[in-house]
Each structure stands twice: as structure tokens, then as C-alpha cells.
Fold this protein.
Amino acid sequence: MNNASPSNQLTRREFLNQTAAGVAAATVVGSALGSSIARAVESSEKIIGIQVGSISFVDEGIEQVLDLLKQRGAVNTVFLTTFTYGRGLGGRQVPGQPFPDHGKQESDEQIFHGGNYATPHPEFYQNTALKQTRAPDHGDLDIVAAVLPAARKRGMKLLCSIEDVFRSDLPGVKEVTEVDLQGRQTGTLCLFHPGVRAFWTGLAADLCTSYDIDGILFFNERNGPLLNALGASHAQSIASSRVTCFCEFHQKAASERGISFDRAREGYRKLDQFVQNALADKRPSDGYFVEFWRLLVEYPEIILWDRLFDEGKHQVLAEVNAAVKSVRKDLQVGFHIEHVNSFNPIFRATRRYDDLAQKADFLKVVVYNNCGGERYAHFIQNVGSTVFRDVPKDELLRFNNHLLDYGTEAALDALPTAGLSPDYVARETKRALAGVQGKCKIYPGIDIGIPTGKNSRKASPDDTYAATFAALKAGAHGVILSRKYSEMRLANLDAAGRAVREALK
Ligand SMILES: [Zn+2]
């Protein structure tokens, strides 16, 4: 564990003394009246949200950050990173990337720990081994209690972002971890473990009960075993020998559904062999695609096991939704829909927007178009190394574009430097709107300064303007500026604000 060094820790008192919100923060639970007025005022507006981690408020000041977001980004809703151990939503700029033009210009690699940046109340965690998750990064500062009254004062909404990214060295994780194909513990949480279910519902209920927030945005970007085996996502390696989950709870869930645990494991071992052979350039006599399809035909348990993972993940979503609504019906629940959903037709087939819409008030659909170029190229490289190894990769990209209804996007070698177009943002927004059939709201996630490779595209303010404008003009109910304020340049934030004001004129 790398605890925060004393020089970087602020006690709650020191921190609150720095901000005018201090007095209000102490009485946060009693501020329901003010917030209901704010809610009424804002209810007719589109949600213009931004994801912000605690470090930005600590580094730059709560009042200052909120004023800046409102004035320059036209932001009316803060998605405050409240629980994560990940660098996508938490911490300063990711190590190795240039700092934006605000905040401390110093890496927090040594002090970032992660966890719950609010105050966990033990009564909500009685049925889970995951009891000690308080983030030590900012001493005893409670970021939700500190930011909420300052947001309310400005008529802004606040939702807590919680993310399924854990550290394997935390107390309790060993008891609820997944087990991979080789029988090893992975350190990630098994979504069929009752203690994991109890943790997520407990956390959501804790936040919604203990603070007068507007709701929860839940992130879980984890893929099932089939995609993990193939590396068929944008940001992962091919890991066919480490697929999950083969623990006792998965075994039990499988047997209740009449799925053979042994056949599934055997199927995944054969898939691992297929993948390893492909990577070693050992072509099956019938070709890569035929051999892959034959595996699925002979071992339908491969698909069933992947589906079981999805079922677990979606049950957690439904349970989090129920836990939040049991606190108060008008609390909003949203799910982050990961980027792979827009690149990968196999993944896309496993997600029904109308089904997801039953479990949420809104979906944050990732349409990150700038980093989307290199991510999409990465996906094509990976699937083009195994299942579609017989297809030249540039042809595979064009074929995939047709499957996904992408318009004119760059060729494979130019994708990382070109990014994806604003048209991609508009199409994916419209697809989501059509998919949910009015049953929930769609807030596309807009890419502002998401880190890319050294030679990949960095979005200009004009790019950010075009993407934000495209999403709103496509009919989105709002947007969420992503991934986090601590990696955004202010000129891009200005451009997003300008697009919002012009699109909503
Ligand atoms: Zn399991």
C-alpha cells in the first residue's frame, strides 16, 4: 500500500478552512430544501455533465473549479469520482502524459491510492469482506460532503461515480476474487460472489442515504471470457490463458442453468490453444475463421460461459438500481457503456439497449472519437491476429465499418493520427437513442483530452466543439465531458461550452 505522504495530505479541517463551503459541508445532510429547489430549476435542462476526481478540487479549490466548469464548460452537473482505484477516473494526469494548463504540474504516482473518497458507514458493509476501502489520499477529507453544498449553491447537480476497479492487495479481496482458467486467483471481483453483490449495493445505498446527492453513475468496463481470450477490446491484450471465472459461485450459477462447468473449461482450454497457435502463425488446415467457428459449434459452452459473465454483470447493475431506488425513487441511476460497444460487433450483439434501459434512468454511452482512432485500430489488430488472421487488416477494417454502420473513417494506418469523426459521435448517439426506445436518457461521453499515444491525435478545440455539437444535434438528452477534468485543457473545455450554448440556442 502506498499511503499518501504527509506533505500531500490535508486534514479535513485544513481543507475546509480553504474553502467557503466549509460551514455548509458540515450540515450537508440537512440541505434537502435547497437541493430540491435547484432540482426544480434544472429539471427542464439538458444534463451537461463533467467527470471530476477529488484531486482537482484539492489542488485547485472547490469554489474555483465549480465556477470555472460552469462558466467555461456550461456544466450543470458534476459526476464526482467517489469510488475507484483506477487512474481513468481518479488522480491527476496519468503518469507520462503532459499536464494540462491547470492543476498541479506534478505527478501523483507516489501518492495516488484510490478507494472511497467519501466516508464509508460500516452498517452498509456488514455482508461483505470488502470493509476497508476508505481512500487515504487526502487524509480524512470527505469529498462528497465538501463539494455537494458548493455545487448546490450554484444550482448544479451532483452524482457520485463509482467504478469496479479494485486493487488486489486490499483486505477482503482474496475472499471474493475471480479464479482463472488455470485455477489462479486474479484479484478482480467475482460478480457472482454474494459478498461482491453486497458491496456494490451497500456502497450505492450508503452514498444515497448519507448524502443528499442526485444519484449514481456506475462504471464496470470488464469483459466476459470470450472477448478477453481474443483481446477483442480496445485497451486489452490477448489473454486466452487467464480467462475467468471458474470459482465455486460460477460453478453453482452454471449448474442452476444447466451449463456444464467441465465442458466450458475444456472449451476455453481449446480456445486458448487456438489463440496461441494463431499467434505462433500455425494456421489450421481449414483456416482461422473456420476453426474458430467450429470451436463455438462444438463447444457452445464457450458462448454460454461468456453470457453467464454478462448475466452476473447485469444482475449487479439491476441490484444497484434497486438499492438506489429503495432509498429514494427520484434518485438517478446511470451506467457507463464501455467503448468496445461501438467497435466490436460480437460485443454489440450481447448488449440490448432496450434491456439496459430497464435498469437505468440514463446510459452514458462512450463515443470518445479522438482516442477512438487508436483504440479502434488496436481492436482490429487484435482480432486480425486470431479469428480473422486470414483477412488483410485494412480490408478487415473496411468490412467492420460496414457491419457497424460507420461512415467514411480513416484507413487503418491513419486511424490513430486521424481519430474518429464527429459523424461517428452522431451515429452512435442516434443508435443508442433508437435502441432505448425512449425508456431512458442517453448522455454520450465526450472525449476531452483522453490520453493517446505519442504519435496519435491530440484533439484541438475545434475537434472538441465538433464532437459535442454532433452529440447534442443528434438528439442526446445531454453530454458527459470525459474522462476527467484533470486531463482536459481549458481551451477544449471552452470549446465544449461553446458547442453546448450554440447547439441549445
Ligand atoms: Zn466466480
About this structure: Residues 1-43 have pLDDT under 50 and may be disordered.
